[in-house]
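Table S7 (text form). Paired inputs.
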Amino acid sequence: MSDAAAQPKPAEPTGELAIRTIAMPAAINPSGDVFGGWVVSYMDLAAGISAVSHAKGRVVTAGITQLSFLRPVKVGDVMCCYTDLTRTGRTSLTLRVEAWVLRRGEGDRLKVTEADFTMVAVDAEGRPRPL
């Protein structure tokens, strides 16, 4: 068996790339890591971007479940959020959102956070509408 065959394959993101950004110093907490809320806000944007295309119109975030912070995000990390549609209902849909980083923009991708976002399609008055 070759060394390459013995090495585990790096994990890969699930779904489609929805948004990419870079962690800047303004987003850090006193410990020097990026605030979890900053990460979740970009995950919510990614879920919204993807949900709008599936719902063919405006959506709102109804809930976030199964949120797991796996690793810290550091200043200079390039964070990418991937979305995967996991459920559709009459007026809502759920997307699995994974946040991955490239440390200082290079090297292997590392999964830092994951969660399920439930989005509801709404009409012009903000009332739920069928998908």
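Next pair, protein 2 of 2.
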Amino acid sequence: MTIETYMIYLMAVAVFFATPPDTSQLLIISNSVRHGLRRSAYTIAGDLTANSLQMTGAAFGLAAIIATSATAFIWIKWLGVAYLVWIGIQLILTKDQADDITANTSDQSFRLFRQGFVTSMANPFAVVFFGALFPQFIDPTMPVLPQLFILGVTYLVVDGAILVLWGWLGVRAATALKQFSFGLVNKVCGALMIAAAALLASKDFQPQR
């Protein structure tokens, strides 16, 4: 992979993220509003961990399995939608943040990590995306694994930076929302989660024959 090819890849990834927030980004905004940027870093870590596994799966052919299996695709997608709706409803029904404030820190950190991980892993489009993206920038005359490593790390760095940016915006929004009540914060965050579920549900993919 030449430096020119790498720069084109970097531009392609940047363009990919120059869109309205997706499901994971909405989750980061929600958690940043409720818990602050430092704690939402656990959610970011969960998301990036899932992305790493998805990249590995794509490298070993999982993308082809999902792309040709309508059943696998539908199950993964709708389990993700159900999980996001469940989080959203829980937040909307929560009247205040007393439980969050008194919760064990390690338990809360794990919960935030799990939300980021499950939300990202439940998006079947990601594996298919990586399986289609990486081959476009790999030079078959050179060792493949180092190229995959470079492409994967680059994506994770850009993705992490974008998630931190959305988290920072969530913190700024929290400043205004918390002037009213924690109940309003929870309802707004719950609405964000349901919006993320609707976004995932609206995506369609026609498996290859």
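Residues 25-133+143-202 form one domain.
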